[in-house]
Design brief:
With 257 residues, this protein is an alpha/beta fold. The protein has helices at residues 24-30, 35-55, 75-98, 114-127, 143-159, 170-175, 222-233, 243-247; strands at residues 16-20, 60-67, 101-106, 133-141, 187-190, 209-212. It has a domain at 17-142 and 187-235: Decaprenyl diphosphate synthase-like (Undecaprenyl pyrophosphate synthetase), CATH 3.40.1180.10. Helix 4 links the parallel strand 3 (101-106) and strand 4. It binds 3-methylbut-3-enyl trihydrogen diphosphate (IPE) (2 copies) and magnesium ion. The site of one 3-methylbut-3-enyl trihydrogen diphosphate has 11 residues, from strand 2.
């Protein structure tokens, strides 16, 4: 953490919070229950965190719900997770809409059953004009997948003459990621005690502030999120500059992309 003095009152809330919701399985096992019990408790935690983000006027909340590597889990757990995802979406979409929340899904949806793909697209369309919070759910998502699909689309545009090789830049790559319309995460949170990125938004996390907590996801409540946000607000983000430059109001803010 920074040791340069900063004016904490001036630090704004993060615009975009990205969370790896880890620890559901261990939460259940501690209670001598099957892992799925922890995933269900995890959905309850999501609801409270979403509500809190709306009250705190966070613009974007991204939640890692299922990674491209999670298919490697036992078949039964994968299939229970898929049905939990489907039933939660069916149950919650109207209330998300009523609360002015815009839903977005990122990840490779082609492996999902048609009915689920349709529900995801319909929910995105229904909520697309909502403004209180953009809730991004990453399902069958991997940062490497995201970069790969971006590179393929850029390659197609070069092949068809729409772009030239010399057009490739960090900002062009950003524009082809699944999060192209969103600001990059300011605050990255991982619950469950592990300190790794597990193939989440690899490109987008370039300058995110990292926050790791041993709290298991079902126990992560608004008070725990408030603690993470206040840790974020205590930090000085320098984006490669010196602390003195950041403190000097006349220096324009650094932009990465
Ligand atoms: C995160 O919790 C949820 C998903 C990956 C779907 P885990 O299921 O990974 O819980 P632990 O890490 O085994 O406790
Ligand atoms: C990361 O958690 C993925 C999600 C929370 C969806 P994992 O539990 O799958 O991560 P690893 O395998 O411990 O790195
Ligand atoms: Mg885990």
């Amino acid at each position: 953490m920074s040791d340069t003095p900063i004016d904490c009152k001036a630090s704004p809330n993060p615009r975009h919070i990205a969370i790896i919701m880890d620890g559901n399985g261990r939460w259940a096992q501690k209670r001598f229950m099957p892992r799925f019990y922890g995933h269900k408790a995890g959905v309850k935690a999501v609801k409270k965190i979403v509500e809190y983000c709306v009250t705190e006027k966070i613009e974007v909340l991204s939640l890692f719900a299922f990674s491209s590597e999670n298919w490697r889990r036992p078949k039964e757990e994968v299939s229970l997770l898929m049905s939990l995802f489907l039933s939660t979406l069916q149950r919650e979409v109207n209330s998300l809409h009523d609360n002015n929340i815009r839903l977005r899904f990122i990840g490779d949806q082609t492996q999902f059953p048609d009915a689920l793909q349709k529900l995801m697209t319909d929910s995105e369309l229904k909520t697309q004009r909502n403004e209180a919070l953009s809730l991004v759910i990453a399902v069958n998502y991997g940062g490497q997948w995201d970069l790969t699909q971006a590179f393929k689309r850029i390659h197609d545009k070069i092949s068809s003459g729409v772009l030239q090789c010399s057009d490739i830049s960090p900002s062009l790559i950003h524009q082809h990621l699944s999060t192209a319309d969103l600001p990059d995460p300011d605050l990255f949170i991982r619950t469950g005690g592990e300190q790794r990125v597990s193939n989440f938004m690899l490109w987008q996390l370039a300058y995110a502030e990292m926050y790791f907590t041993s709290a298991l996801w079902p126990d992560f409540d608004p008070a725990a999120l408030a603690e993470a946000i206040s840790s974020f607000k205590m930090r000085q983000r320098r984006f490669g500059q010196t602390g003195e430059q950041i403190n000097d109001q006349s220096t324009p803010p650094a932009h990465l992309t």
